[in-house]
Amino acid sequence: MNCHLYLRKGILYVPTMGKMDEGFYRGVEPVAVISVSNSEGVRECLRAAVIRGNPAVPMLPRRKIPPPVLLKYAGVKSWSAFEKGMLAWTVKKQDGAFRIAGQIKNPDRMWRDDPDQLVNFPPGASVDEVVDRMIAILHDTVRKVS
């Protein structure tokens, strides 16, 4: 399971991450958009995204890949505009264990896990434990950037 979260101007964007044939992911509908101040709403959308998992989506030729689904929700025209002021995390489950990773943009312009922002959960940790920790991270982040 692979879930991406984007925080921009106090709003959380959580696209469904569709899994392509080659094991790559891309954001697809449905997309949750909610104020981080709405903790219960954030809890519901994160739980739903984790439980929904990664539906299969077709691998598209490069020329047919649509613009990122988040752009219309954020009211911006490009990914670079969306990235301005954006913070990102991934929530993954692999081999029965969840992991939250804050993302950093590398010099090659790719977003990757920040080793200083990793939260590894023991096997068997519940979705609710992971969601509660992610909400705490979001609230702490909003406090720091405000």
Structure in words:
- 29% of the residues lie in helices and 38% in strands.
- It has 146 residues and is an alpha+beta fold.
- It has a single domain, classed as NMB0488-like fold (3-Layer(aba) Sandwich), CATH 3.40.1590.10.
- A six-stranded antiparallel β-sheet has the order 3-2-1-4-5-6.
- The chain is globular, with a radius of gyration of 15 Å.
Structure at a glance:
This protein is of the alpha+beta class. 29% of the residues lie in helices and 38% in strands. A hairpin with a 5-residue loop joins strand 5 and strand 6 (111-120).
Topology:
Blueprint: E1 2-8, E2 11-19, E3 25-35, H1 39-52, H2 70-74, H3 79-83, E4 86-94, E5 97-105, E6 111-120, H4 127-145
Antiparallel strand pairs: 1-2, 1-4, 2-3, 4-5, 5-6
Helix pairs in contact: 1-4
CATH fold-level name: NMB0488-like fold
H and E order: EEEHHHEEEH
**Record field, number of beta strands:** 6
Question: Main β-sheet, in a few words?
Answer: 6 strands, antiparallel
**Uncertain regions spanning at least 5 consecutive residues:** none
Mean pLDDT: 95
Report the principal-axis shape. globular
Rg of Cα set: 15 Å
State the distance separating the first and last CA atoms. Answer: 31 Å
From the helix content, strand content and strand pairing, which structural class follows? alpha+beta
